[in-house]
Fold:
Amino acid sequence: MGDSSFPSGGFAFSWGLETLKADGIVCDRSGVEAFARSQLRWRWATADRLFLRRAADARGVGELAKLDREVEVMTLAGELRDGSRRAGRSLLRAHGSMGTPGVAAYRTAIAGGDAMGHLPVAQGVVWHGMGMAMDEIEAVSAYAMAAGIAQAAVRLALLGPLEAQSMLSILREDMADLLVQVPPKRPYAFTPAAEIAVMRHERGHERLFAN
Amino acid sequence: MSNKPASAARVGIGGPVGSGKTALVEQVIPRFARRGTRLAVITNDLVTKEDAERLKRSGLIDPERVVAVEAGACPHTVIREDPTLNLDAAEMLELKFAPLDLVLLESGGDNLASTFSLELVDYWMFVIDVAGGGDIPRKRGPGVLQSDLLIINKSDLAPHVGVDLELMIAEAEAVRGGKPVIVTNCRTGEGVDAIIDHIARDVLFDS
Structure:
């Protein structure tokens, strides 16, 4: 499910990395690794993970819509909000075509403007619908984030393809550490450099990626 | 279990960098408008928003009906291996501007191996140009062979770049096994009406 060839649009997002490179802030492997760690530690573990869990446990579309609103209001940069909705809707589209349980009603609510389809909420819905256990859902989601960053870094020529694999191996330990920690009670995220980069991307000229 | 919505047809426009894809879109928009075809456009600009901005500013179409979808540096991924972001953009346009008859998807400039997934489009055109080389059809790239309609653009440049246009057309027809080839000059609009006729007949079913 976290395979990068599964068609859900992940290849078009850099989550700030494109601008951090253009601004000379991230320019090598250590920079990419630090970026990936901060995304995992201060966004995935403290925010995405909670929405993922709540979405997997949600009873009905009303609860999902509420989670979507929470993601929307706590995500500061416009292209992060937009990217999360677009990536989430793409994942839901693929699973809608596959007939994954729980997806059709959520997609209907999104088409009607009653929900938004933010990525962590969509991930919780589809992977729960696929019958995955909570710890599997969390592991796949964290890995998908890391793999997406590695892929974007390769295409931005920040990493070689083998370096990307070696970085992912190292990040697996970070992910394993995060996964055994108790998640915070309330979601929060703090990745200021990435968020400022995404805001700059909105007005910048570099547009290989959607954010 | 189709990914395609019931209403608007989707037509792809692919081809190498600089072959005239955006110029073609600029030529077809007013022609579709005249025949009452309700239209929206998605562009997969590769490195900027330039093509989308050019169309938005063109005055030919309501700028809201033009959407740029980024390709993450992979122009063929977004039209073939993983077209979900384009499908999402098409669906958003359909929701916003219902009813639509046609959504045009302009690929980012790519190479001769570029093809559209039929999960994304109902029909697709491949635009090559005379100045890119008279030998392009002979190279039998997937775009030249598999597209529903092959367009050879910049016909006026043939004498200036030493290309035998008649030979180029004959070779294109030979390798395509009977599928249509249309010669255009998208700066003047020459040949573009024939493209509209093909789309009206084969895609919109209302010629």
